[in-house]
Description:
The chain is of the alpha/beta class. It contains 12 helices and 12 strands.
Amino acid sequence: MTDTDTQIPDDLPQRVRTITDLAKIAGVSAGTVSRALSGNSLVNTKTRQKIEAIAREHGFRPNQMASKLRRQKTGAVGVAIPLGHDERQQISDAFFMTLLGHLADQLTEKGYDIMLRRVIPSQDEDWLDRFIGSGMIDGVIVVGQSDQFERIEDVADGYLPMVVWGNHQEGQRHCVVGTDNRLGGKLAAEKLIASGCKSLAFLGDTQPIEFAARFAGAKDVAEKMGVSIRALPTHLSRDQTGEEIAEHLLEIEGKIDGIFAATDTIAVSCLKELRDRGIDVPAQLKIVGFDDLPISSQTIPPLTTVRQDIAAGARGLVDLLLRRLAGEDTESLVLPPQLIVRGST
């Protein structure tokens, strides 16, 4: 169904607080509502008039969130971490803490405070609309797309000062800063295969967009080289990671000789489990991580990993957000990955 042939039901609930609420009444996407209320010509006149009528009936003013933020400045930037794919993951995860530290440095240097939110979308499907409409922030940085890609896309249609850490896809509407994850996955697989591996395992959840791209890149290389690769779902919550890795190792012991971990955090846990089992790395099994967190150079053996420049990413997030706060519709920033070879391969 397109914007030009949308049919809007007559049944109206009693309360409309967000664009998402209005979209549910209209039977269209939040993006269509946003476009209709801003007068975008992509929405036909009949559909736009009906959406405007619903908005008037419920006292919902077009672009009320964005106009509120234009009228007043709070001096604060919101940082939201949606955990739709792994609800038990904590902000204390080493990757989050590393990125948040760099973000805090960059934002405070620019005179902004940070308002941080850990979001469980299943408990609040309007989390992003609610955050940016709270009147407490001037703009928002979303750390990770999780399984919220469409939600972020809808908000991006009508809200400019938002930048997202994540994976860039052709044609997407929201502005992203992140690493070329598919290329990073290729680098990891190429290193493992060049080190003699004949059968690979990917440890990570392939549902989040970034992890899916890393696995896809590794799979491209493995298939081209005639090497098998399997994905073994592994979560990042502390109470799950070690247990899941232990189960995976029981399943694949003697069947694989190379592991590509979706993150350094997973790779570090894997090294511990292998050491407890008396499996020598890299003599018996080789491992490549992803991120190049500070701990990756301190493990035994030191971890070979794919580096994403987290500090540069934080600078990019803040720079693009400030430009968007000034009214500029910026392009996304995709950073190149770099293979860091250490002792685990």
